[in-house]
From TrEMBL, chains A, B:
Coiled coil: none annotated. InterPro entries: CBS_dom, CBS_dom_sf, Mg_transptr_MgtE_intracell_dom, MgtE_N_sf, MgtE_transporter, SLC41_membr_dom, SLC41_membr_dom_sf. GO terms for molecular function: magnesium ion transmembrane transporter activity; metal ion binding. Acts as a magnesium transporter. Residues 143-205, 207-263 form the CBS domain. SUPFAM superfamilies: CBS-domain pair, MgtE membrane domain-like, MgtE N-terminal domain-like. It is found in: Cell membrane; Membrane. This is Magnesium transporter MgtE. Pfam families: CBS, MgtE, MgtE_N. CDD domains: CBS_pair_Mg_transporter. Keywords: CBS domain, Cell membrane, Magnesium, Membrane, Metal-binding, Transmembrane, Transmembrane helix, Transport. It comes from Atlanticothrix silvestris CENA357. It is a multi-pass membrane protein.
Length: 456, 456
């Protein structure tokens, strides 16, 4: 009777599970699975429609997931791998809110991650990343499972033999990662170390125990910078329990840094960069992405238009003043761009630390005074030469001097401000610098002109 | 008598050589050395004052240089290495014109280069680079001599033994370079190949003969891109005779790409970047470097001032028009910056080829039409709301539409033009785009306004 009641129980769990999943009550499904024996879970999952198997699997706790995945019947594993590739599964997961997903999906066990990654092509891996639970642009998304791992008690000769047999299956054989029985990363070893060691030494006695590693959720740019900083050829990726789940190699890092730099440069140029290739994107998408930015700048520019409208009386009196408005705001914009470019690039390459902000803004302010003095003198002569009015020329010169300081200070300070607010300095700085320079610049100019011309 | 007359000859050569070098008649010194026996050259060079030894050595032909450098007395080699580090020697070489230097200095033999590089620290290497004859930012300047080279007839077991003994002295042991008796590069081998091969196989039978290499004068950015393209960990550097002289490793490439990118970004921001750190440079140097750029832009902006001065009559009649000048030129500048940023970054990463110019300019022109339409409509409403004058609002809208197209076409076309003229698109594009947008933009605006207002 035992076997019958057990079958009944399995059937009951499977039915309830299917109903809950169909209702998209994932919380309920997860709760249902908690007290059930893992063998029964396996049976229940096997009985589900295919599209639901992978989701039910992902709702399991870490301990249950490995038991189910490693279930004696190898077809279970294969079925699950196939399920991970399924489009409709990804569609369901995609529709969950990100925090729901994080709450429902436990981290997958290291062993399962490695098996899944090995059986999925890089393209499939990317597509199933949501199911794996790694967010985009993190180490978890760019790591490869093709590393060599060893146990500490293996000898150098045995390790070399193992490498010989696996060399063609691994992305890099130049670093070996040493793990304990629970897959936890305990050491690292280069092929160089192995080559120069005696054949009967154990790996544990020659490995390096201070391993630099990153976590699955480390940002890819930080992964790249770490590899760059240490001149590594690869870096190990561990999960929250220190279990080795993959490695990131230096050749991927080159591509990541290039992609990140393109995004930085596009942001500086006022382009929202989605990582996709601009030259292959639909033109309407391109226009739509660019227009948002231009509309923001149009609105900020309207403030300048309002200021000028407000000050029309002085322009009506001395139309000659109008001629220098483009020169003043363009030069201010250029000075601001120079300061902000240096600071933004410095922040992105970590050459500049946020705590150095005050010193750098001071420095840029002095640079602004120097530039303003030189340009101011040149422009006074130039403006007089163009219009023959000394008072207008002097008003232009003093305004340019003030605008240079304003521009270099806002150009260097705003990126720090946006960084401290958690915003991308490259994307945020330009409209604010433009507004500051244009609105305040025109205000400064017209008021200085009003004051100086009052002496005529 | 033979020995006396020989000593006399040596003395004569030494004296003449010294006189010619003191007169800085390097051409003459080189001619003097051509018919002399190498043993006599060695003696003559040894007799020279220290500061002249290295220069006399560099004037020798390739064949003579190796004979002198490999002269039986090891002190000669050591003296020459010391000479290469001397500041006054570098000062003299620095003062020669670059083409004089190229004509006078033969390429150094591969063996000599390697010995010199091995005995000079990276810092010294950089300082003596002029003497070595490699121009800055080329493979010759960034290569390291710390590679492993093998002969074809060596067995795998012998090679492994050799690697074991040298592993700690070489920067990378993961690639081995196979050379013939004349130091010419004939093949490449990875440690992986070696590990999986049978101990008694010869290197020649397992090596790869299709080697990707660069020349000493290959630009460092191209070296970096080649390594990136092939996912290499290192690339061999050969001289004009295919002799292996060094390798460039991937960790150096990461730094080069970062440095080149910083230069590109600084150029886009209107900063002349000398490869030095902006935050450690003297403020006056910073201001001097920036002001050149700003003065160029000031001059181009003066053209806008002249155009406005020329069209003052219409502005006098309708002062309201002035309010929209900043908005029009700023938006034009932004649209131009978006187009040029995409093209410049594309050219720098080689994602865009110069021959694709026409297609991309067309694409950007259409993007300009789309953007101009959207922004034009918005601005008409906005301008009317601001000033309540339909005619002015319509003039602003039509102008903005035209300026968007002008900006996207010049923004995408100018980088291609400058690239085809051999100029840096990142540095050259901004002032020309600004001028085009400002001067033509204001002209378009004021003339459209004149025409439209003529209906009132």
């Amino acid at each position: 009777m035992q076997s019958r009641s057990r079958q009944e129980l399995q059937e009951l769990v499977r039915e309830q599970l299917q109903v809950l999943l169909e209702q998209e009550n994932f919380q309920g499904a997860k709760a249902l699975l908690v007290p059930v024996q893992f063998a029964d879970i396996t049976e229940a999952i096997e009985g589900l429609p295919e599209a639901m198997q992978a989701i039910a699997f992902r709702l399991l706790s870490k301990e249950e997931a490995i038991e189910v995945f490693e279930y004696p019947d190898p077809s279970v594993q294969q079925t699950l791998v196939e399920d991970f590739k399924r489009q409709d599964v990804q569609y369901i997961v995609d529709r969950m809110s990100p925090d729901d997903r994080a709450r429902l999906f436990d981290e997958l066990p290291a062993k399962v991650v490695r098996r899944l990654l090995q059986q999925l092509s890089p393209l499939e891996r990317d597509a199933t990343a949501l199911l794996l639970g790694y967010t985009p642009n993190t180490a978890g998304r760019i790591m490869t499972p093709e590393y060599l791992s060893l146990k500490e008690n293996v000898t150098v000769a045995q390790a070399l033999e193992q490498i010989r047999s696996l060399a063609n299956l691994r992305e890099t054989i130049y670093y070996m990662y040493v793990i304990d029985d629970a897959s936890r990363l305990t050491g690292i070893l280069s092929l160089r170390d192995l080559i120069v060691a005696q054949p009967d030494q154990t790996i544990g006695s020659i490995m390096t125990r201070e391993v630099v590693f990153v976590n699955t959720n480390t940002d890819q740019e930080e992964v790249a910078r770490t590899i760059q900083h240490y001149d590594f050829m690869a870096i190990p990726v561990v999960d929250t329990e220190q279990r080795l789940v993959g490695i990131v190699t230096v050749d991927d890092v080159l591509d990541i840094l290039e992609q990140e730099t393109t995004e930085d440069i596009h942001a500086l140029g006022g382009l929202e960069s989605g990582g996709d290739n601009y030259f292959q994107t639909n033109l309407f998408t391109v226009a739509r992405k660019r227009v948002v930015w231009l509309l923001i700048l149009l609105v900020t520019n309207s403030a300048t238009a309002a200021v000028i409208t407000n000050q029309e009386d002085i322009l009506e009196k001395v139309v000659a003043l109008t001629a220098f408005i483009p020169l003043l705001i363009d030069t201010g914009g250029n000075v601001g761009a120079q300061s902000s470019t240096v600071v933004i690039r410095g922040l992105n390459t970590e050459e500049v630390r946020p705590k150095e902000a005050l010193g750098i803004v001071k420095r840029e302010a002095i640079a602004g005074i120097l530039l303003g003095t030189m340009l101011g003198i040149v422009v006074v002569i130039w403006a007089f030469f163009l219009q023959g009015n000394w008072l207008v020329a002097i008003a232009v010169g003093i305004s340019l001097f003030s605008i240079c300081i304003l521009a270099s200070v806002s150009g260097s300070a705003l990126p720090f401000l946006f960084r401290s607010l958690g915003l991308d300095p490259a994307l945020m700085s330009a409209p604010f610098i433009t507004t500051a320079v244009d609105v305040l610049g025109v205000l400064i100019y017209l008021n200085i002109a009003r004051w100086i011309l009052s002496f005529s």
